[in-house]
Structure formats: structure tokens, C-alpha cells
Amino acid sequence: MLLECGDDDVVLTKTYHMIDDDEPILEKAIGTEIDWYPGKSLTQKVLKKEPKKGSKNTKPITKTEDCESFFNFFNPPQLSDDDDDLDKETVSYYLS
Fold first, then answer.
1. How many CB atoms are closer than 10 A to CB 43?
2. Radius of gyration over alpha carbons of the chain, in Å?
């Protein structure tokens, strides 16, 4: 995938490493780490909340949360080391 951003061309990749060719079991996935400009990340949203009236703290409260974005695709999935962590519904989802 090639994204043109002004004068710079950025290539984003995601590579999957499988344990076995016969049975596709994901060992790990590696994606391009995106170096966002400060405050410009499309994978996080900044929430600002004004303090309540009469509060001693007059500064707005700022909180950063992850949000859904196309660019989250390049973050590696969290793989469990323990097979007991997967429930039957999750296993059937990935096997179907």
C-alpha cells in the first residue's frame, strides 16, 4: 500500500508469520509502526471536559482514548500464550 502525503511517499505493510504451511496457524503479525505528528493520530481521540462550576481546578481535563480506525490494521494483534484463554465461541469464529 502506498500513501502519498505531500512530498513524502509512505509505504505501510503488514506481514504475517505462520507456524505451518499445511495448517495456517498465526505465529505473529508485524505491521508498520506509524509515527503520527503530535495530536494528529487517527487511532486515538482526545476528550476534553470542562471542570464543574465552583471547582478549585480551573484547567480542562484531557483524556486520550483509542478509537476505531483503518490504521489499527497495522497494529499487531494480541496473541495469547495460553490456549485456555480462548472460549468456544472465539475458537469457532476463527475456525469458520
1. 15
2. 20
Number of domains into which the chain is organized: 1
pTM of the complete model:
0.56
Within a domain: residue 63? yes
Residue 66 CA to residue 42 CA, distance in Å, equals 9
What are the tens digits of pLDDT across the range 41-90? Answer: 899 998 888 877 877 777 888 888 889 998 888 887 666 665 555 566 66
Q: Is the dihedral of CA 44, 45, 48, 49 positive or negative?
A: negative
Q: Which residue bears the cell 462550576? A: 53
**CA 41/CA 35 separation, integer angstroms:** 9
Residue 6 maps to a domain: yes
Residues 7, 9: Cα–Cα separation, whole Å:
7
Evaluate whether residue 90 is within a structural domain.
no
The answer as to whether 56 is a domain residue is yes
